[in-house]
Structure formats: C-alpha cells, structure tokens
Amino acid sequence: MIHDTGRRRRVVACALAALTLTAQAPRPAPPAPVEMWVPKKTPYAAYDAPNRPWWKLAEVRALHRGAADWSQPIVRNRDLVADWHQQAPGNRTAEVAYADNRTAIIVWEGQVRVTIAGHPTFVAGKGFEIDVPLRVPFTLETIGDRPALWFEVHAASDLPLYPVAGTAARPRDVAGFRYERRLVSGGAGTPDATNPLYLDYYKDVVQGGARATAFVAAQHLFVNNIRGRATPTPPASNLGHFHVGYDEFWFVMEGNVDLQIEGEPLIAGAAPGDVLIAKQGRWHRASFGGPEGQMGTRVAINPYPLGLHGYSVRSGGRQ
C-alpha cells in the first residue's frame, strides 16, 4: 500500500486521468496496407522447448504440485523470455534492476507488495499489470496467507543488476558473465502516458469501462491488451497474418481465446492464465471463443510496437 496519503491521491488521480483520456481519445485510422514482396520463413520455425503452442496454466501447476516456491520457463526466443513465478507468503524477491529494457509483470494470484525505487509502494492483486522502468531496482513481497503467482516478461538480452547497498555479497556469476562492482550511467527510466507504472485491469477496464489498450509500448517490448466479444470461430481459410522477424505470444486475461496457427491443430477455448505462442513466420489468427457475446481479453506480447503484419493479398489486410 502507499503510505503517504497525499502521494497516493496524486498517483491515483494521475492514473485515472490517463485512463479517462485513453478511453476518450479517438482511435487513429490504420494506414492503408501496401503490397510488397515479403520474406516468409520457409520452412516455418519449429517449437523448441520450453516454447509450445499452448501452455495451459493447469499443466504448469501440475509440474510443481506440492512446492511453495517455484519458477517455470514458458517463452524463450531471441527477443523475449517469460516465466511463471510462485512465491510463498512472507517471501520476497531479491532487489534487482535491468539495464536497458522494461519488465512486464501480470499478477495472477495472491497479493504482492511491489516496491519500485523512487515510487510509492503498492499492493497488486489478481489482474494487475506492472511496468517496471529500466534501471530501477524493485522487489516483490508476498503478503497475506496464500502464495503469490505472477507472469514476468523480460528482454532476452537482459541480466539482473544488483544494487550494492542491498547485496550482502558479490552475486553469483552466470554463464559467460562475471559480476563486478562498477558505476552505471544513463539514468533511470520513468513511467509515462504510454507506459504507466501499473494498471488494475479487472477494476479499471473490466469493471470500470476504461478502454483496453497497450500497457507497455517501448523499445523491444510491446504488451497490448486486446478485448472483444466471443464470436463463432472463423473458417480455416481465414489465415490471419504472420510476422517476418519475431515470435508473438498471448496471455489469456479474460474469457476464452481460439487460435489457429499454421501447421498446428486449432486451439479452442484457451482459458484465463493460459499462454499461447506463434513462432516466427507462421500464419496465425486469434479470436475470442466461448458463449457468443462473452467478453474476452488476450494480452499480445512481442518485441515491436510497430511490428510488421503480413496478410493475404486477397484479404486486403483486413484479417
């Protein structure tokens, strides 16, 4: 929780103002598609562990049945890494920062006291999306009487930095790197209108009516909330689109998601907490499933806010 009442009011007021402006701002018209010769990866990229088309949360839990603290790798590609983390009540992560990229976190269960240097401490529960600026130390502490579970995304090139003041001894080296005590430059990142510090998605969007929109739109990381109503699954002839140079994955936040990926069986009814992955160069088409009219949210995650989408010439870029 934020202990300074005045600061808390200012943070809440700024957040609500940003959400209101976002909800009222007109959507810019997308640029008209342009026909080009586009390189499509052939053969398309294979799924290498731990990547798989559909990571069910139930399967992740089964891998760690009986453990209070655990981490599970979910996504590994040349741009991004993503993992599930569970932490027992009373435990706290080491204080770390990341050199050149933001960290995205989705809290899924329990309660986490989030301490981000230079900002008021807050408590995040289910559905909170957290955007930690680059080079800013942070910790996550599980409070209450149940474990906390969260999904965490980093740039693949990032390694943790440890503030000397909070470290009892030199950190353990990792493969190919030795930790040394040095001065660092470049300054700390800050929240802004495009990259707020956090969003209580269920409270602000699902219940409050704010527009679902991008939560992180920064160099090397795009976390985009996409919300809509369930509709009949499109026919297989609707290929969707593909990306030339990167993988894309989705966190199911609300409702159900159907996903058609080139070369894979149709994924039908992915549930909240599930993660879906489309490898580089594969056609893919996501839609909201479940009872017709049910609201759904998929959080699309990839390294490029302005990433290229390749569409069928026949579709005119409308799929």
UniProtKB/TrEMBL annotation:
Gene3D superfamilies: Jelly Rolls. It comes from Sphingomonas endophytica. Keywords: Signal. SUPFAM superfamilies: RmlC-like cupins. This is Uncharacterized protein. InterPro entries: RmlC-like_jellyroll, RmlC_Cupin_sf. It comes from the Bacteria. Residues 1-25 form the signal peptide.
